[in-house]
Amino acid sequence: MASEDRDMGEKTSPRQPHFLNKSELGDENPDSVKKWWWRSLGGAIATLSVAGGSVLGIWQPLEQIAYRGLFHLRGSINWDERVALIVIDDASLRELGRFPWPRKQYTKLVNKLSSAEASVVVMDVLMPESSPDDGQLAAAMLRQGRVVLAQGWDATGAALRPTPVLRESAIALGHVSNSPDTDGITRKVSPQAQGVPILGITGLRVYALTKESVKLPDMNRPLWVNWQGSMRQIPQYSFAAVLQGKVPASVFKGKIVLVGATAIGLDPINTPFDGHPPASGVHLHAAVVNNILQQNYLQIIDERSLLVYLLLGGLVLNCSLSVWNAKQQVIAVASLCSGWVMLSLLLLHTGYLIPIATPLVLFGLTAISLSVQERLKMKAQLQRIEGQQQQRRLYDSLTGLPNRALFQERLQLAVERSQEWEDDLFAVCLLDLDRFKVINESLGHTVGDQLLVAIAHRLCSIMRPIDTVARLGGDEFTILLEDIHDLSDATRVAEDINSALAAPFHLNGYEIFVTTSIGIAVNSSVGQEENSKCDLLRDADIALYQAKAQGGGRYVVFDASVQKDAIALLQLETDLRLAIGALINTPSTISEFIVYYQPIVSLSTGKITGFEALVRWQHPRRGIVYPGDFIPVAEETGLIAHLDWWVMGEACRQVRAWQKQFSSNNPLTIGINLSSRQFDQSDMVERIDEIIRDTGLESSSLKLEITETCLLENAEKAIAHFEQLKALGIKLAIDDFGTGYSSLDRLHRLPIDILKIDRSFVNSRSDETDKWEIVRTIIMLARNLGLDVVAEGVETADQLFQLKQLQCDYGQGYFFSKPVDAMAAEALLVSQFQ
Among 396, 100, 109, 98, which residue's Cα sits nearest to residue 247? Predict the structure, then answer.
């Protein structure tokens, strides 16, 4: 937080580290500085005028004219062959009657396209009113399986969605909103509105489920349309002609087929190529689909960058032109204008749209300002830090910050002052850069030194003058915050520091990100009588250690419980090492760990088909310790793999015993999580095979679960391991599906059998339609890929009802049973098999 946000005393300019430069050594000529500023005045005036006009929108009409002209200069480019249009044109209206048509016409069309094996059917037709033909159309849509319907909003903002029966039959909805610019031309669209993707993007998402993957644009930024040419040049087929069989079915096979109105007066839009007569909404969505398929939608320069470019360009242009005569200036400006137009045209060919009129105005205004401007006088003075040379012994030679000696001197003064004034509070913040050693060793000490200097500058920029920022050595900094009101002032400074260092550092061509761990000690942390600089530095150091132990990138405030927590965490780690060591060294002894089992239930029969194995720790003093308390410690210390192998062996042995006790045509299965540590072991497959053989469990009864996160981190290794496990006959599942952003292409390549839907989607109310739509999509995806689906976190009858409606295969959660020990699990089986 900047100094103006903290009421912690007087707010003036911060102390800054001091570095010598040429100007300090007297090499700068003040007269040359004056001349440079004077020459820059005209460019500054022109630039500010243009920038101000740009902010106020004065140049927008000129840019709109230039936009249309630029597209006409470029001409038409080819449309993607994967896109086809079926249009409701004037001929179709004459043949089929007045619009809107009965739904049976669309039913016929969907049936035609289904027979033609169209990949996706995208309907740019609003259907908010119920019709007697809705049932037939819905049935046709279900048979086709990939029909996207349109959604809009009326003038009051009310949603115009398809009727419920049609909405349920459509695979997805897409919005058809259009926001033309003031000149009536549509230049950009919103990829999503009120959470609903635009129609074209929705169609592409469905297309990606069955065809090749498609890289979608940023959904939170406007998509600028790269108009291919006049809409009359798009391959499009009359609605009536398609129904009458005059268009070969092969035309639509495997394609994205967009259906919409192009007849005059129906859904008109203006494009750079089409205004009289206009194009139609379906052309807009076709252009969006085409742009994304070919990845040639327009990239633009944002307004902030434009202002920066205008500022720099104006100054450079002004300095360059000021040394030439009038004739040379005219030639130069004319050359710049023509060159800029050519550059704009060239960039448009490559998918980039840059402003045209605004730079041309800048060139003209700069040339005009040179003829009237006066020489600007400006005095440049460099401020000195008084006595810097005399105090070198108290300052760090690299960063210019106070060194350890000066910091301890100021800290001692603060301690003495607090002993005189009882309510005087101050704090010590000890900073240590996370993973600085890696940066230093990989990029070199030169870059490391530059990084330390840059960090020093950022720290000083957010401190008050009365605060002291010092470098103790290496990558360790410390800050003395004086005259604070309470602890919250110190924590706000720590947050400010983390925010200031979050932005990347650009050094020697490298982009470097750093985080810092911060320990905070306030002079009230210890008794007033015992306050000393050593106490505070020690306390801050203990808090710093805790911050690093928690993963770094955070701050910790020292208090007595910090030491207790550190001791407790160390004791927990010691107990865990002893308990897991007993598993490794004396496996025949009674273990402190217990395998718990949570049933997996068939939603069609209500029967238990298997279990997922979980682990609990029966601590001799603490009692039951849940995984959330000891698994992170086991992962950090590397003990997790030993525990996981033990759990796998115990679970397989127990399920094999139940299979013998409760014989069935469908033997019980056991699901076991594979940790990333196990996944990294080269002999993982061999050890699993050994456990199967030792326990006598059929390999088909073992289901191994791995999270999406682990898959993303070990993509190629996952495929290799999965193929080996599949060769053994083991079932494979992706756990917590939907939370790790799996690539659908990668999912298709993995030889998996099961998707487990994460509980965050399942554990929802029935009115949370967005989450249930995600569940529906996952189930549909799994069905298309031939996979079973297990829904985790089923806790209510309503959730069970929703899952049954969606035809989910299996469920798991507290509605059926919480995780139980082997005896309780066996009782559940006895009840089922009686």
Answer: 109
